[in-house]
Amino acid sequence: LTPGRPDLAAFPRERWIAAARAALRTLPHDALGYPDPGGVPALRAELAGYLGRVRAAHADPGRVVIMNGVAHGLSALLALLRAQGGNPALAVEDPTSARQLPMMESAGLRLARVPVDEEGLDVAALARSGARAVLVTPAHQYPTGVVLSAARRAALIAWARDVDGLILEDDYDAEFRYDRDPVGCLQGVDPDRVVLLGSVSKSLAPALRLGWAVAPPALAARLRDHRSRSDLGAPVVEQYALTEFLRTGGYDRHLRTMRRRYRARRDALTAALGAHLPAARVHGVSAGIHLYVELPPGCDEDAVVAGAARMGVAVTGARSLWSAGRAADAPPALVLGYAGLSETRLVKAAELLGQAVTHGADG
After folding, report:
1. Low-confidence residues of the chain, pLDDT below 70?
2. Residues in domain Aminotransferase class I/classII large (predicted)?
3. What pLDDT shows up at residue 233?
4. Which helix (H) or strand (E) holds 121?
5. Chain-centre distance of CA 360, in angstroms?
6. Is the distance from CB of 133 to CB of 166 less than 8 angstroms?
7. Model pTM?
8. What span, in angstroms and rounded, lies between the C-alpha atoms of 52 and 188?
9. Where are the domains of the chain?
10. pLDDT at 360
11. Right CATH number for 13-248 from 3.40.640.10, 3.40.470.10, 3.60.15.10, 3.40.50.10490?
12. Long-range contacts made by residues 246-250, C-beta under 8 angstroms, separation at least 24?
């Protein structure tokens, strides 16, 4: 039940091979040299159209910069923020991804942890932090699964305008929504104060190392310049294959298939948790490929994680995702990924997890 891992067995191998073959068939020889640091122009154009249609983004090819995933895009943006000088601060959600924190700390920025509640990022607390840049996951907050409310979205945009700030929007899990209509990205509301970060790591496979940043024109130019000086661009053949996959509608069809599959797996896991962990509170069910499960009072989170591991079920405890100041007050919880297991295996995993929780109650 490791979170953040898509169903890699579902990668559309034959359709991807067909897209790559179609792209290579007409690709000029010169296109196989070192790429444009901002990405292949044809891919930037296809992504601009796709993101405008699906995410209500204000995207044109000049704003789109192809990156090697969200982490790469974020790393480049943090380097540019650091280069501005003045000991800049970056506000980060609390809780947040433990994987991203070391990268952000290594960028040399001062991190300001900002609480997340049932409406998402606490914008009033953000204003008190003194930061002028913030990283948010408004579509499906990691790990809690909260969707940023309409009021908070408006307040966040107003904050950015008031402080001349920058919002780094990680469009986390936006592709997978099940019970609610999709919410447009923040970047479409204020494209001059929001950078939209996305990738195909969840929708296709992390191994492709393809993502994007949709940035204000001046910042997009700085990102392209940064890429030209720091690396030699994203993989060319993969960029052209994704271009073809988008152009022919293959990407849309694949996402429709995966939404149906993940919805069925989510339903199986939530029902099984209700049967085997009736006292637990399950959050984040309306989108994404993970659940945030608050354990019953009195449970020892570490003991549950260890007990589940002994039974062959890998689960992630949530305490390490909170700041030190809030971890002590956070209820014991687990982050459960469900994308990579069949419904039958998810039901069995929930049964074993229920046994681990029973043994982990009261320490």
Report:
1. 360-363
2. 18-318
3. 87
4. strand 120-121
5. 31
6. yes
7. 0.94
8. 8
9. 13-248, 252-360
10. 60
11. 3.40.640.10
12. 246/43, 246/46, 246/47, 246/50, 247/46, 248/19, 248/22, 250/12, 250/15, 250/19
Burial track 105-119 (b if 16+ CB lie within 10 A, e otherwise): eebebebbbbbbeeb
Helices (runs of H) and strands (runs of E) counted in the chain: 12, 12
Tokens encoding 88: 């800049």
**In this predicted model, what pLDDT tens digit does every residue of 202-211 receive, in sequence order?**
999 999 999 9
Q: Which residue has the tokens 């393809």?
A: 210
The alpha-carbon radius of gyration of the chain (Å, integer) is 21
The single-letter DSSP state of residue 299 is: B
Q: Backbone dihedral region of 70: left (phi > 0), alpha (psi from -120 to 50 degrees) or beta?
A: alpha
Q: What is the CATH topology of the domain spanning 252-360?
A: Aspartate Aminotransferase, domain 1 (3.90.1150)
Output the pLDDT for position 197.
Answer: 98
Structure-block tokens of residue 246: 């988008």
> How far apart are alpha carbons 358 and 249 in whole angstroms?
48
CA distance 63 to 270: 40
Inter-residue contact 294 to 333 (CB < 8 Å) = yes
Closest CA to 337 of 286, 265, 279, 280: 265
Which tokens is 81 given? 């923020």
What does the mean pLDDT of the chain come to?
94
Measured distance CA(232)–CA(252) in Å, rounded: 29
Give, in degrees to the nearest 5, the angle at Cα 205 between 199 and 211: 20
CB 259 within 8 A of CB 267: no
